[in-house]
Amino acid sequence: MTGIHQRTAPTKINRTDWNDLVTFLGGTSSDPQVDATKILLAQGGSLLSTWRYATDLTKIDAAKVAGNIAAAQMQTNVLAAIIAANGIVDADVAAAAAIAKSKISTSGTWALADIPVFPKAKANRLTNQSIPSATWTSVSFTAEEFDTDNIFDLASPTQLVCKTAGYYLVGGGVYFSNNATGDRGARITKGGIGILQAGTAPNATAYCSITLASPFNLAVNDVLTLDAYQDSGADLNLVALSTAPLQFFMFRLP
Fold it and tell me: To the nearest whole percent, how much of the chain has pLDDT over 90?
C-alpha cells in the first residue's frame, strides 16, 4: 500500500552468541545477563570505548581485545594510550586487522609489564647537614630510595628535575637539632624561586620537625630544591634520624 513503509526487524543476538560473549568477557554465573552487566560495569571504558569505534561487534577479534588484560588496573593506562594516539578507528579493529601496537602498549600485548609507570622519585639524606645561620641552604641528598624517571642524580644532589611534564605531588621533611634561639624554616623552590614554605619556633630540648607537600604543575626540566633556614646565630645541624631521614620526593599524579 502507498505510504506504508515496511520495517526491518532488528538482528537479534541468540542465546549461544550471548553466552559466547559472556564467556569471552570472563563470566562464570549461571545467568549470563547478570554476568555481562557486572563485567561491563567493571571493565568500564576500556572495552566499551574500543567497541564503539567499530561498525559492529563481529569486527572485534577477541584475541586482539582480550590479550593478557590484567583486570581493572589496566584500564586507565590503556585508555590513556588510546587517547594519546588519537583513538582506535574502524581500520584498527576490522576483520583480520591488527590494532597498532603504539595505540595499546610498547609490546603489542596487554601484559602488566606494559603498564606505564608514573614518574616518581624520592631522595634521602642519611647523615647530618650543617646549615649556616640566616641563610637559605639547599639540602644535599645522599641516597636514592626510588626513581622511575631519572629525576634524581647524585651528581646534582640538591635537585629533583622534572623529566615528564604533568601535575606532581612534591614534598619533603627536615629535622633541626635542638636549640632555643631564632626561627626555623623549610621551603621548596622551582627554578630558584620559592613555591612552598613552612616554619616553626625553635625548641631547646627536642628536634624541630618541618614537613611540607603540595601539588604543582611541572614542565620538563623544571628544577626543584628543598631548602632549610635557621637564624640561631651559629651553624645548626639538620639531623638525619635512623627512623626518618631527611627526605625530598615528587610523584606524578594520574
Answer: 51
